[in-house]
């Protein structure tokens, strides 16, 4: 037997409550109550829409500025970069930016927009919240009454009339007095002032010159005293054997240290220049030579080179140089390993295809001391 549905149960929850008699045009947020939130619903909706639109435009403009002003110019800032590589980098980045521009509006609409997936998610959350509040209906719901259908929203107010033009400035009855004129000076007064200023500056210049002359005289006397003291000390040292050895050591230590410093500076600069990029290093034959030595498949050469280079770095103990040294050692080790693998493959192909049955004579690794190579490889790992 079918039961009749209560005509007063508009929302179909099986209970006649205050929400059944609440008109839709008053209950704007759909919570079944009328309050301040319903009165300010339209204002909050418009303000939120305007804020979301403003934020969406700002975020999109921020991405465009980052790409055009920072990312794009910095990709190929090196003027020594080859033109084909520069062109390829720009083409790849432009394709990625084009794909990002296609997906960026959708993501921004999802974040800040009121339509699309954001509105659907909000509607689903709202419906789920209402379902939790409602109890399961005891009777099948009936179609809503046409009398309780939501009324159309009220039209917006007409724009306010333009403000009247501003009134002209008020009349001025009293004019302000002009500023007082500067006092006039005669030619004799100007000549007297120039004369006094000249003698004042002359007196200051004479005082400064006198002070500088005294300082130069004191410096000459001090230099003469130091030279005399060093001469007497050198003569006193030359009378003994130990003093002669010290004089010989100082005489030969200075040029040796100067030469060693010049070679150290040459090695550090051309292997790790501070003002050149990788492409800039390829334009200097000294850097190319050092890169070839560092990436050589000969273990003895690589171990000697990086040991000397580490000794040059031990003087300053600078962290940035040590980090670059480790990265250079690891990178050159990879290149050296690739070259050695290619060489081993060629040797194996020669002893198996070109000259078969000769791998025990001229195969890869034949005649090389195994223990020494193991020691050198372990030393390179310790250095790194």
Compose a concise summary of this entry.
With 384 residues, the chain is mainly alpha-helical. It contains twelve helices and no strands. 65% of the residues lie in helices and 0% in strands.
Distinctive features:
mainly alpha, flat, 384 residues
Structure, described:
This protein has twelve helices and no strands. The chain has helices spanning 36-39, 41-75, 83-112, 117-133, 187-237, 241-271, 278-281, 285-294, 299-313, 319-354, 359-362, 370-383. The longest helix is centred in the middle third of the chain and has 51 residues, at 187-237. The chain is flat.
List the helices and strands and how they pair.
Elements: H1 36-39, H2 41-75, H3 83-112, H4 117-133, H5 187-237, H6 241-271, H7 278-281, H8 285-294, H9 299-313, H10 319-354, H11 359-362, H12 370-383
Helix pairs in contact: 2-3, 9-10, 9-12
Describe the global form.
Answer: flat
Termini distance?
Answer: 90 Å
Query: Could you give a short account of the major beta sheet?
Result: none
Spell out the helices and strands N to C: HHHHHHHHHHHH
Count of DSSP H/I helices: 12
